[in-house]
Amino acid sequence: MRDIVSILPLGVERISFLGDGRTLVDEVSFNVPQGGLTVLLGPNGAGKSLTLRLCHGLLKPSAGRIGWANGAPSGGVKRHAMVFQKPIMLRRSVEANVAHALAAAGVSGVERGTRCREALARFGLSGLAAQPARLLSGGEQQRLAIARAWALRPELLFLDEPTSQLDPAATRQIEELLSGLVAEGITVMMSTHDLGQARRLAGRVLFLHRGRLVEDTPAAAFFAGPQSPEAKAFLGGELIW
User: Fold this and answer.
1) Taking Cα atoms as reference points, which of 187, 212, 179 lies closest to residue 47?
2) Contact, 153 vs 77, CB < 8 A?
3) Rounded Cα distance, 88 and 142, in Å
4) 165, 196 in Cβ contact below 8 A?
5) In whole angstroms, what is the distance from residue 169 CA to residue 174 CA?
6) In a domain, 166, yes or no
7) Is 207 domain-assigned?
8) Nearest to 208 by CA among 192, 189, 186
9) pLDDT at 1
10) In angstroms, rounded to a whole number, what is the distance separating the alpha carbons of residues 129 and 167?
11) What range does the domain containing 71 cover?
């Protein structure tokens, strides 16, 4: 992957998204450079998940533009992947879930088998390869979802609230995996409303409120001294709407 011209930075230019007669994402702009972990932070309903889906191409902006470096297309082999809050597990084995994603991406049979084995080993799932994916625990399913995405060799990985339904032990395991992916050189962008998680993982914070990007700053600066009243209230534990 590293000898291919990068699709990054990702440029998001004044994107908006309308739904149910309301503006749910409102003229949001930012860039995602190569490397590091960016956290989309904010209360429920801030537009975090929608922004990730727009960036990944699952939704089309009502206005604005999303562009990749060198005009890289978002179709075909995307080189960006997404993991959802509640991952979709096919009615197949753990290994077959990974193999199906690779086949859908056009990976050939021999390469597909190699990548499956690598992914299951990398995420501690080799011993569960023959198990039905839908019978895994929540933490195991999330690891499988990340393994399935990792097998596609993404340059940029989007994650939507990846630990919101997990217990503390499973959450810690997922966080360690994400830190490992960043160390490998994969760029990660994830949404969360968990302040502790954002403090532990983020190199950069994009703080959203009511569909608008309120702050875009290095994580250390954000937590040391948020500039907006909304972010100060959020960090103070107040409910903001």
Assistant:
1) 212
2) no
3) 9
4) no
5) 9
6) yes
7) yes
8) 192
9) 43
10) 23
11) 10-88+155-235
Confidence at residue 88, expressed as pLDDT on a 0 to 100 scale:
93
Q: Sheet holding 212-218: strands in order across?
A: 80-83, 156-160, 187-192, 37-41, 204-209, 212-218
Reference 155, options 87, 59, 77, 60; nearest CA is 77
Total domains present in the chain: 1
Contact (Cβ atoms closer than 8 angstroms) between residue 55 and residue 30: no
Residues 62, 96 contacting (CB under 8 angstroms): no
Q: What is d(CA 15, CA 9) in angstroms, rounded to the nearest whole number?
A: 16
Which CATH number do you get for residue 37? Answer: 3.40.50.300
Which pLDDT value is given to residue 237?
Answer: 86
User: DSSP alpha helices (H): ranges in 81-228?
Assistant: 94-104, 109-122, 138-150, 168-184, 195-201, 219-224
* Size (the chain), residues: 241
3-class SS at 219? helix
CA distance 55 to 158: 9
> What is the rounded distance in angstroms from the CA atom of residue 37 to the CA atom of residue 203?
5
Q: Please tell me whether the overall predicted TM-score, pTM, comes out greater than 0.85 for this model.
A: yes
98 falls within a domain: no
How many helices (DSSP H) and strands (DSSP E) are in the chain? 8, 9
In the chain, which stretches have pLDDT less than 70? 1-3, 71-77, 239-241
Spatial separation of the C-alpha atoms in residues 137 and 143, rounded to whole Å: 10
Which pLDDT belongs to residue 238?
81
In a domain, 126, yes or no: no
